[in-house]
Amino acid sequence: MSAYAALDAGGLRTRSTYRAAFRALFWRDLLIWRQDAVMLLIKVMLQPVLMTFTFAYVLPKIGHGMGGGGAAYATTLVPGLVAIAIANQAITGVMMPLLMELAYKDIEDRALAPIPLWSVAAQKILSAAFQGLLSGLIVFPVVMLVHADGQAPQVHVHNWAMLIAVLAFSSLLAASIGLLLGTMMDIQKASTLIVLIMLPMTMFGCVYYAWSALDPIKWLQYTVLVNPVVYMSEGMRAALTPQLGHMPVWAVLGVLAGGSAVMGWIACRRFVRRVQS
């Protein structure tokens, strides 16, 4: 065998090893996730079920409809709740396990895998993004079904390509944010993070109202643009409820796609430095 052939064969074996190790790490994460499936389902579904039950069932039943009527408000609510379900699960799905691994030095076995460290970080992002995507798909039928008689949300897929793109980029962006946050703090500060970051991200992420509804409060309407959940919620509205109005599609997809790339790159670099230190 010539020297060039030997090099080619070695390169193929290396790439094959990388792919096998990457798949093994990915399926390991999903196996752990599946073992805690019941508790994860409860966590994913609790907030959307309570919100839709309150705003689309209880309030219309007692005569306190919101947003121009229970059905109108339920229609506004569905895309936002799907978006926040994806964001919450994708962020915590990578952040919390990473904090545990860094705290108890369990990250060392992954660092010894026969793939570059940045690949380990990318695998974590993909795994958490997959979890976030599944969470959104689980929540969607729930928020569609929980409502009072005559208060069903008017939701259907108007643009499949848009919906798929928003689902994919929302999951990747949220997972990248989760990885970055996991490398920036200690596990003792996780509860503080939930209060200082996750709660405002939810309340000001246009989950319970459309971005255009903030028009009377201009300073707040532009301030919330730093919140990635705004673009996830508005992207879902563009695909599912365009009749209610939404942020321009180019802005939504530009931020979600660009943010996924930039945040993923930053998070991977931060992960490598944190593990090597």
How many strand segments? 0
Structurally, the number of domains stands at 1
Sheet with most strands: none
Average predicted local confidence, pLDDT = 80
Low-confidence stretches: 1-10
Any idea what the shape is? globular
Question: Beta-strand percentage?
Answer: under 5%
Helix content: over 70%
Oligomer: single chain
Measured between the Cα atoms of the first and last residue, the distance is: 42 Å
User: What letter string, H or E per element, gives the SSE order?
Assistant: HHHHHHHHHH
Number of helices: 10
Helix/strand/pairing category: mainly alpha
Query: What does the radius of gyration come to?
Result: 21 Å
Question: What does the model show?
Answer:
- The chain is an all-alpha fold and 277 residues long.
- The chain has one domain (3-276).
- It has ten helices and no strands.
- The chain has helices at 3-35, 37-61, 70-103, 108-111, 117-145, 160-184, 190-203, 218-223, 228-240, 249-276.
- It starts with a helix and ends with a helix.
- 38% of the residues are buried.
- Residues 1-10 have low confidence and may be disordered.
Briefly characterize the structure:
The protein has ten helices and no strands.
